[in-house]
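Saturday, quiet lab. Running sequence design on the structure tokens for the scaffold JK sent over.
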């Protein structure tokens, strides 16, 4: 399906927002303004944006420890996200959760998650709930190549396949799980091959090509919504930085990292938009500038926000 210019620009904006959000996090972390462990999504922007563009606002996503991109792509509030990362009372979790606990149920964002693989059964549960309630909401589970080796993946995907639940399993294969290359953790050609074991379609795409991701996600979402069951979508991509902020990534060589940076998903999309005559360089620059400014405003909002009060420490406790 051809996307209108507005939709393409919205995709570009979200990819830029993710890029500037993550770059700011690296900087703010160094300045001790970001608290707690944080994993950034630089280089993987096309996956979250391509997939979320294929979703309705009331569809669900479950996320991972590397969740900022998913949240922004599904429409998350940059101010509340930034405030959460800076530990401020105006943040998504009132400054008490940090990067890996951001959720926005009104937007169908079921939450980032520090337990590798655990977003998968959460998405399957949301899809089951949607089905039981007679709704046609689809759930997307974002997860990594590493997560595809957990029990939660196999249990979740099998149940969804058997019950034909409206789930799209989106594997973000960024080639590493911390320092372990997929060369050492997969005995097959790709995570996608596992789809056959569950009797569902498996599709592998260039995860740095936002339109290719979108097109594959659109088909998988349509199939799920029609009651035909889940799809496993493997997006090949690469994380530009270390596993966590602060990891020098000594297990990868510079040439490999540089080669992937040449496949920058934002610059590739920009070049496409300009070459196809959809945007001029001037329009691109204006959009780029606006997204940079939006991010600066989010940082200012977070920095000017109050710390949580000492009394708030005992609020929102469920155990
Ligand atoms: C159940 C569980 N096991 C191990 C960890 C430690 N851990 C955190 S992230 C990670 C690697 C995840 O790799 P992948 O799923 O490929 O996601 P990526 O970090 O590449 O986005 C591991 C092993 C964890 N958080 N939870
Ligand atoms: Mg990985």
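Result came back. Writing it out in full:
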């Amino acid at each position: 399906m051809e996307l209108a210019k507005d939709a393409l620009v919205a995709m570009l904006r979200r990819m830029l927002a993710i890029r500037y959000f993550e770059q700011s996090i690296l900087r703010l972390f160094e300045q001790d303004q970001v608290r707690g462990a944080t994993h950034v999504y630089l280089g993987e922007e096309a996956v979250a944006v391509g997939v979320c563009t294929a979703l309705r606002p009331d569809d669900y996503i479950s996320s991972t420890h590397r969740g900022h991109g998913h949240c922004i792509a599904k429409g998350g509030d940059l101010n509340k996200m930034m405030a959460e990362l800076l530990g401020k009372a105006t943040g998504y979790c009132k400054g008490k959760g940090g990067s890996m606990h951001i959720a926005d149920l009104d937007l169908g964002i079921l939450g980032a998650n520090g337990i590798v693989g655990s977003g998968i059964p959460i998405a399957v549960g949301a899809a089951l709930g949607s089905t039981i309630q007679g709704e046609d909401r689809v759930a997307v589970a974002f997860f990594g190549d590493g997560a595809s080796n957990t029990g939660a993946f196999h249990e979740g995907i099998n149940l969804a396949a058997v019950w034909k639940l409206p789930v799209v399993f989106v594997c973000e294969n960024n080639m590493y799980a911390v320092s372990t290359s997929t060369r050492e953790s997969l005995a097959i050609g790709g995570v996608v091959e596992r789809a056959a074991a569950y009797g569902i379609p498996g599709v592998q795409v260039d995860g740095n090509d936002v339109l290719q991701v979108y097109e594959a996600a659109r088909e998988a979402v349509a199939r799920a919504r029609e009651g035909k069951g889940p799809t496993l979508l493997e997006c090949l991509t690469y994380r530009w930085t270390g596993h966590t902020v602060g990891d020098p990534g000594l297990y990868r060589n510079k040439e490999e990292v540089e080669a992937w940076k040449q496949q920058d998903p934002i610059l590739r999309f920009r070049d496409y938009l300009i070459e196809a005559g959809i945007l001029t360089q001037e329009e691109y620059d204006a959009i780029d500038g606006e997204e940079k400014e939006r991010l600066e405003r989010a940082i200012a909002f977070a920095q000017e926000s109050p710390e949580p009060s000492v009394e708030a420490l005992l609020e929102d406790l469920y155990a």
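Notes for JK: Residues 5-309 form a domain with the Rossmann fold fold (CATH 3.40.50.970). Residues 48 and 70 are 5 Å apart (CA to CA). Ask whether to fix the surface positions before the next round.
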